[in-house]
Amino acid sequence: MGSMSHPALRTPFCELVGVKYPIVQTGMGWVAGPRLVAATANAGALGILAGATMTADQFESAIREVKERTDNPFGVNMRGDQPDAFDRADVMIREGVRVASFAQAPSAPLIQKLKDAGLVVMPTIGAKRHAEKVADIGVDALIAQGGEGGGHTGTVPTSLLLPQVTETVDVPVIGAGGFFDGRGLVAALAYGAAGVAMGTRFLLTQESTVPDAVKAEYLKTPVTGTVVSTRIDGYPQRVIRTKFVDHLERTGRLMAYPRAALNALRFQKLTGTKTKDLLTEGKAMHDNQGLAWHQVALAANAPMLTKATLVDGDVEVGILPTGQVVGVIEELPTVAELVQRIMGEAEAVLTRLGSAGA
Q1: Which of 158, 170, 202, 225 would staple 177 via disulfide (CB 3.0–4.6 Å)?
Q2: pLDDT tens for residues 150-167?
Q3: Are strands 99-102 and 120-125 parallel, antiparallel or unpaired?
Q4: Nearest of 162, 164, 201 to residue 24 by alpha carbon
Q5: pLDDT band at residue 1 using 50, 70 and 90 as cut-offs
Q6: Mean pLDDT in residue range 238-252
Q7: 7-211+329-355 adopts what CATH topology?
Q8: Which residues make Cβ contacts (< 8 Å) with residue 80, sequence separation at least 6?
Q9: Is there a contact between 149 and 323 (Cβ–Cβ < 8 Å)?
Q10: Distance (Å, rounded) from C-alpha 163 to C-alpha 135?
């Protein structure tokens, strides 16, 4: 049997999106730029561009840069609740983006607009009831991220979330949280998924633009070296446990507030958000999600804390979002090496299982 030929590895997700391999590189804020996304696309997997942390101009030029670097399909992540969400959708449609990815479920009209234009709409969820909800609105696929995943995450581990979600919805489900190799890919398929998505594993590659010193911090972090904190923006977020994160965990809300307000203004400048929009969004979070005002300030503040580390390389006053999988990653392959290795391992596992009874 030739390499990469096992029929189980050609999943409905591959057909739906037009990629060779059932592997997704997630749209990590400040990390998933054109270089990483194009490298992933060229390796035969689906790269997702982190559009949510970009200004409208950066958003458009980043999409064009990916297209200059690859002819293969790719995705773009955006926030469904951004004031200019529909304008950004227009850009994605015009530029021929294949997949629209969302961290929270977008509105039904936005989903409809993207679907009508032929894009594959794929939100990320962390609970079975959220999967049911987005399936009802009519998404084309979804990423189910277990609690061991990085960044904003739920509490249900991948091993329980995937079987629950795959038997609940009838669209392709991509498993996320804890994946790093071919064994995991086969396990996800066994749970009924149509592929795996990885954030941390792709962050730790040659083509990821995260500064070397920061990558070194990730590489030396053990499986037990992460913490889920609500102190960063009011939502549970898995990050590397640093002195700064310990400090955030210890200090009350008052300390965090002025710094948060300042950072919110910086992020606003960086992404070109109007003050009015920022305040409207803050008020909505306060009213709809029941967040206290200090939590709203923290939520606006969080992107700057992430950028401080992942872009500016400042490990002291930033946060390092990560999955627990960070503890089993020890080197920085190229994206192509990583994808080929995972597919080779998956092939070997399936062959071993297939001949086990022979």
Answers
A1: 158
A2: 999 999 999 999 999 999
A3: parallel
A4: 201
A5: very low
A6: 87
A7: TIM Barrel (3.20.20)
A8: 102, 104, 105, 106, 107, 110
A9: yes
A10: 16
Given this model, what pLDDT does residue 316 score?
Answer: 86
Nearest to 202 by CA among 218, 217, 191, 226: 218
Angle at CA of residue 236, ends 234 and 240, nearest 5°: 110
| CATH 3.20.20.70 location in the chain | 7-211+329-355
| Residue type at position 342 | I
Burial class (CB in 10 A: 0-12, 13-18, 19+), 347: buried
Distance of alpha carbon 223 from alpha carbon 247, whole angstroms: 21
Residue type, 333: P
Q: Which residues contact 275 (CB under 8 A, 6 or more apart)?
A: 268
pLDDT score, position 113: 98
pLDDT at 172 over 60: yes
SS3 state at 174? strand
Give the rounded percent of residues in the chain with a pLDDT score beyond 90: 75
238 compared with 297, residue with greater pLDDT? 238
